[in-house]
Design goal:
The structure holds two protein chains of two kinds. By secondary structure, chain A is an alpha/beta fold. Chain A has 33 helices and ten strands. Among the domains of chain A are: about 170 residues, Rossmann fold, CATH 3.40.50.300; about 55 residues, no CATH class. Chain A is about 60% helix and about 5% strand. In chain A, helix 8 runs antiparallel to helix 11. Chain B is globular. Classes of the chains: A alpha/beta, B mainly beta.
Chain lengths: ~725, ~90
Amino acid sequence: MTTLAAESRVRTVALVGNPNTGKSTLFTALSGIHQRVGNYPGVTVEKKLGSFHHAGRRWLLLDLPGTYSLAPRSPDELVAVDVLLGRRADTPPPDVILAVVDASNLRRNLYLLSQLLELGRPVVVALTMNDVARGRGLAVDVEGLAARLGVPVVPVQARSGQGLERLRQILAAAADAPPPAPLNPFPESFRREAASLADTLHLPPFLAERLLLDADGFLAHRLLDQPNARTALQDARDRLAAAGFAAADFEAEVRHDWAGRLAAAVVDPSQARPVTASDRIDRLLTHPVAGTAILALILLLLFQAVFSWAQAPMEAIESTVAALAGLVESHLPDGALRSLLAEGVLGGIGAVIVFLPQILILFFFLGLLEDCGYLARAAYLMDYWMAKVGLSGKSFIPLLSSFACAIPGIMATRVIEDRRDRLTTILIAPLMSCSARLPVYTLLIAAFVPDRRIWGIFGAQGLTLLAMYLVGIAAAAVVALLLKRTALRGDAPAFVLELPSYKWPAWRVVAWRMLERGWVFVQGAGTTILAVSILMWAALYYPRLPATVAAQHAERQAELETALAAAEAAGDPAAIEAAQAALDQARAAAAGAQSRQSWLGRAGRWIEPLVQPLGWDWRIGTAAIASFPAREVVVAALGVLFDVGTDADESSGRLRETLQTASWPDSGRPLFTLPVALSLMVFFALCMQCAATLAVIRRETNSWRWPIFAFAYMTILAYLGALVTYQIATRLTGS
Amino acid sequence: MTELPLRALRAGDRAWVERVAAGGSLVRRLREMGLHQGAEVRMVRPGSPCIIHLDGQTLCFRAAELDAILVRPAPASAPSREARPQPAEIDSP
């Protein structure tokens, strides 16, 4: 009998398979709610972990990214190989490899399996898509396949849970059994060369073999730092070339030959029926005209749903947070603690969860479209256009989502395998005019753009709004091209898109993906957003007004409160209204005086020379800095700084009028003119004033480097854009 | 029939892969997915990106690197492994 400690040890299973094989469905079916997502340090690969209990033991399930081959060409692709070989300190070496094999596409799936069988670890095959295969007349002889492979093969139907219990039992048995002899389809002379290279370089045989096969140099560069190791590799390659094993096709020929013979032995090709349903749907959905029109319609419905469904929950969240803040304010004495809790902490938490409705709804629909196979068609249709800015069709949906909100857009870039394409997409996504910019545009357009018709049909206000969206799109195109030519330059990625057969979506997988994204956002970005909110609160709260000034404000307010109480006692509605208005104005004046006195107000004054070329005074500059946590905060900040009060919003007529009549203190000329309004709008179209987006970029790229870069480049871009806008508009309008 | 680059196929054309010359990462990836000598392909939508059928899968990729892949068009009467009563696509190049 083994010791108790050894018995209770956690066992690790690594899930590996091609994309679109039902691997995620199987992962969800095996682990249920016991899932969590993280990152492997130093790369952008998602680390998906699940667990289940079986036979008195905990099983850890590692879901590796879907791949067609174990030939790593980038640090991201190397992660899977290193995990499988037990070469990562942060991940336990797998006791069993669970290879997910799509029965309806057996030959291609066997290619990856042939690589997995060389690793020398126990392998169990989960055969998925059996119903699809049977429907096409490609039923697989399961016993025959298992016998030829020498490893267990378990047919599963993850959606209904069929075969899962047996799969768990067989995994348990395989983990306890000695690993099978590695299966290697290469000729004897090649295997000997690989084995001797492995000995020389002290590497696992699989990596030595990869060094011999992968001529692109990524692995050699990564693994070999000694010149004599490189010489040993070159010598071995030369000997193989002399023996005729150097053709670029060599590995593919050997593995496909093995896979083809195996598939022919276990599937009867004479029964094959053509795939027609998917093809017939595709004739319409990938048609250049009809398909594009349908895509536009689907996206229209999607955004309609995101905006209209998210509105009610977002309002509910906002009013709940406001109610809680009110509760805090009525139960705590006036002071720093009350203000911190009500504005810093609750405001920060509100700023995090207010994004959740949009994130959840968007990912629900994107999950549906992805799971039924449509997203790949959308990527095909849009690839032509995205290629013009150096990206691929896979960047289209993330960028489009960013018009609603950059946060789900950036999270949706996980479908882009190429690291450079993904980073470029992440960095330009915040340039899409998101819904948080709308309050800024609405306020300024209503106040300063004349409601005029141009050529009889176009309204000047509508055109200005459209121009703000176009400014962002044009900037994004230019930035993408520049990034792909400089910082993120490299070989064009291997853009291969598999168009999977259409199928009904698996609701459980869709629901899980949606919840997982929501959780990742709250957990990964929430803390940063909260911290920024509290810092900004402090910058606006401290230092306090001098005691004498504060006392004067308090005295004035107390007087007005008494007057209001007197008016209420008298019951004269006109007098009550007048007293209330005077009190509100006194409170707003106090808040304005405090904000001008705060660190933030001082910073605004300090940067005034910097923002004057944009047509701004220090108050606009302060409002722009105060909106660092979120762009829409600028509206409330303008309200406070211009003594309108804290609860001003974009539809408030008083704020609009105040801005229209505001003037430069020294000369008395109007502060806000059309050029100033345009320069402020362009600034907000291009700037990165959104702590939540920065936190999500940090979460998704696993480093602070990219959010800092995004903030720096967008702030410079916004400044230059506003400068050019102001200078040109001033000259055009002659003001 | 002579060898043609894969991109020369028209919608609905079937062909056998004759040679996959050394190419960039796209060709390597396609090779792993089954585009090797002797494989049967059918052009679904030509152009760039194009859509092809390969060994029961539908793949989409850009045509830029495809001069490295040479095919031999199958005569219309040749038996197909896919056993399809094709071609019948909507558009032609």
